[in-house]
Write a structure and sequence with these properties.
By secondary structure, this protein is of the alpha/beta class. The protein folds into 2 domains: 139 residues, Rossmann fold; 102 residues, LytTr DNA-binding domain (OB fold (Dihydrolipoamide Acetyltransferase, E2P), Beta Barrel). 32% of the residues lie in helices and 30% in strands. The chain is built from 8 helices and 15 strands. It has a 5-stranded parallel beta sheet with strand order 2-1-3-4-5, sandwiched between helices. The chain has a 5-stranded antiparallel beta sheet with strand order 10-9-8-12-11, with no helix packed on it. The chain has a 3-stranded antiparallel beta sheet with strand order 13-14-15, with no helix packed on it. A hairpin with a 5-residue loop joins strand 9 and strand 10. Helix 2 crosses helix 3, helix 3 packs across helix 6 and helix 4 runs antiparallel to helix 6. The longest helix is centred in the middle third of the chain and has 14 residues.
Length: 250
């Protein structure tokens, strides 16, 4: 394999032994080139910005800033390398990582598992929806915090309880906070649905999610749902397949 097609990686781990072990194991793969190593989230961010790696092997538990914090930093800088989290066996962290569809390795790193990780990368050449994955990860870790959504010009922080309903717009979505106040965010409605609290929201159709707290009236014949917030009434359509399930939620 020539130099151009090599997989460039950065290793971020606060423990020298962890960095050394990963470098040693990756040395058995001639297709891999270690672009940099770093001992903290901040120095790791600098290394990633400088070298633009394909894969980042990222320790989770580090002083001051965790691997999850670094993932958020990357999203804010619009950088999206493939992240492979490396962690001691922590069921909570692993469940969060799986929920967000990131890859991971547990310490001590098994050479065969590392090989499988690299094979998955080579088969797909990276993941899509990096921002959605990070948002899902952070929403699971901090369920009581506001949700962060990217917009066309920046991002917004949203308390889910303030959302009246959500309307699909292709790969974008419109978050309505009232009849006339809305925000367009860079995430499809299916990804948003995964981030919302398990209770409190309902997928009324392929293109609409409603906040159950604001339901005022359901009309079976017209398949219409009236929502009221701050004295304003908004009507949204419910799909034929979903209207009976919506009734059962009350």
């Amino acid at each position: 394999m020539n130099e151009i097609s090599k997989i460039r990686v950065v290793i971020v781990d606060d423990e020298p032994e962890g960095r050394d072990v990963m470098q040693h194991l990756l040395g058995f793969f001639p297709e891999v080139e270690i672009s940099a190593t770093a001992e903290s989230a901040d120095s790791g961010l600098q290394a990633i910005v400088r070298t633009q790696p394909d894969i980042v092997f990222l320790d989770i538990q580090m002083p001051k800033k965790s691997g999850f914090d670094l993932a958020l930093d990357l999203m804010q800088l619009h950088l999206s390398p493939v992240i492979v989290f490396v962690t001691a066996f922590d069921q909570f962290a692993i469940k969060a990582i799986r929920m967000a569809a990131f890859d991971f390795l547990t310490k001590p790193v098994d050479p065969d598992e590392l090989k499988q990780t690299l094979m998955r990368y080579m088969a797909t050449r990276g993941y899509t929806d990096f921002n959605a994955r990070v948002t899902t990860l952070l929403a699971y870790i901090h369920p009581n915090k506001k949700l962060r959504f990217n917009t066309r010009t920046g991002f917004i922080a949203v308390n889910p309880e303030e959302v009246l309903y959500i309307m699909a717009d292709g790969n974008y979505s419109e978050l309505f906070f009232s009849r006339d106040k809305k925000e367009i965010i860079c995430m499809n409605i299916g990804s948003i649905e995964e981030l919302l609290p398990d209770k409190g929201f309902f997928r009324a159709s392929r293109s609409v999610i409603i906040n159950l707290a604001y339901i005022h009236r359901i009309e079976r014949k017209s398949r219409c749902c009236e929502l009221i917030k701050d004295g304003e009434t908004v009507a949204v359509e419910i799909s034929r397949e979903r209207i009976h399930e919506l009734e059962r939620t009350f």
